[in-house]
């Protein structure tokens, strides 16, 4: 066994097939989420923890179906509320490996307010957003990451809004691990998910996972393997937060893949601080009980 800050990771690998549930995905043929699921199985195989030590928490959306396709514990919960639920799960049982998954709508529209708080609390969670820049499940409405000018059923004349930049958003709030990948580069995405899981704190992976039914063709072209800009080949220094912020500015124009930022000195996680406080207060709690005893005996 090797131990990160609060995640016990066995050194032995497991067969990725162990994590595939008998439920067959019902995504549209060609949906990017199939590739994300495969990368996830492989990453979990490398991590080596058994399914009963893992919990998947999602919101609502096509991408949020992912917990049902794994053999781990899963909760396909409420639209936009995956992060608060996941924080509760992790705090109640810090030994569980907790992975949060969902879409850009789930994470940055209705659930956008929760992202900042999950980051500043810094529980050891891995947050995977399948960013298809549209609402897939509800049939193609504008999402918070849709590019300006996009024509959808809710923006028939073209969107007038600037999109949210998930990379800048998470970096600006101080996430210790921020990465971007795509199923077009399966080995790269697998490695990113594994690295995010191993990071001892809140880790965010933005996954460009095109919606082939309602999404824009431009995103699909940008996410094509030939057009990717792997950060490793550009000599990017992932320990440099300012450089990471600079790379993040190109979101929506070029697809940089890899780790934008990995904090070299991860701070203690929230669940560890809570446990430490509980331990520190325990003797006082015993004292109070003794006082109560004396009082009751009188
Ligand atoms: C409180 C609430 N509001 C709205 C909805 C309807 N709804 C379900 S999924 C969704 C958006 C899905 O888009 P996204 O989160 O980006 O995921 P995708 O389907 O694209 O993977 C919406 C608006 C809901 N289920 N609950
Ligand atoms: S609607 Fe889009 S996101 Fe949903 S399953 Fe189909 S291709 Fe995937």
Distance between the termini: 53 Å
> Structural class from helices and strands?
alpha/beta
Bound molecules: thiamine diphosphate, iron/sulfur cluster
Largest sheet strand order:
4-3-5-6-8-7-10-9
The residue fraction in helices comes out at 25-40%
How many structural domains does the protein architecture include?
2
**Strand count:** 10
Taken in chain order, the helices and strands follow as EEHEEHEHHEHEHEHEHEH
Radius of gyration: 20 Å
Task: Characterise the protein shown here.
With 298 residues, this protein is an alpha/beta fold. It has 2 domains: 2-266, 3-Layer(aba) Sandwich (Rossmann fold); 268-298. The protein has 9 helices and 10 strands. The strands form 2 sheets. An 8-stranded mixed β-sheet has the order 4-3-5-6-8-7-10-9, sandwiched between helices. Strands 1-2 form a two-stranded antiparallel sheet. Strand 9 (228-230), helix 8 and strand 10 (255-262) form a beta-alpha-beta unit. Helix 1 packs across helix 6 (186-198), helix 3 crosses helix 4 (112-121) and helix 5 packs antiparallel against helix 8.
């Amino acid at each position: 066994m090797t131990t990160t800050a609060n995640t016990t990771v066995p050194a032995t690998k497991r067969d990725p097939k162990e994590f595939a549930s008998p439920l067959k995905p019902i995504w549209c043929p060609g949906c990017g989420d199939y590739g994300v699921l495969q990368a996830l199985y492989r990453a979990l195989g490398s991590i080596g923890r058994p399914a009963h030590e893992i919990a998947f928490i999602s919101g609502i959306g096509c991408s949020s179906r992912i917990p049902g396709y794994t053999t781990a514990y899963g909760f396909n919960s409420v639209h936009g509320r995956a992060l608060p639920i996941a924080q509760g799960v992790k705090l109640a049982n810090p030994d569980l490996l907790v992975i949060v998954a969902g879409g850009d709508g789930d994470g940055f529209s209705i659930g956008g307010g929760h992202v900042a708080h999950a980051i500043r609390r810094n529980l050891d969670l891995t947050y995977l957003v399948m960013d298809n820049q549209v609402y897939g499940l509800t049939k193609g409405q504008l999402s918070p990451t849709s590019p300006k000018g996009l024509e959808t059923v809710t923006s028939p004349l073209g969107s007038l809004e600037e999109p949210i930049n998930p990379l800048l958003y998470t970096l600006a709030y101080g996430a210790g691990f921020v990465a971007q990948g795509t199923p077009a580069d399966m080995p790269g995405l697998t490695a990113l998910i594994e690295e995010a899981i191993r990071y001892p704190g809140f880790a965010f992976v933005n996954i460009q996972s095109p919606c082939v039914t309602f999404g824009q063709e431009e995103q699909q072209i940008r996410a094509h393997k030939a057009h990717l800009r792997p950060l490793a080949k550009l000599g990017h220094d992932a320990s440099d937060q300012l450089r990471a912020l600079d790379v993040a500015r190109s979101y929506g124009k070029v697809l940089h893949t890899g780790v934008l930022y990995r904090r070299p000195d991860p701070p203690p996680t929230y669940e560890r601080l809570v446990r430490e406080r509980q331990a520190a207060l325990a003797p006082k709690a015993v004292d109070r009980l003794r006082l109560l005893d004396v009082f009751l005996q009188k």
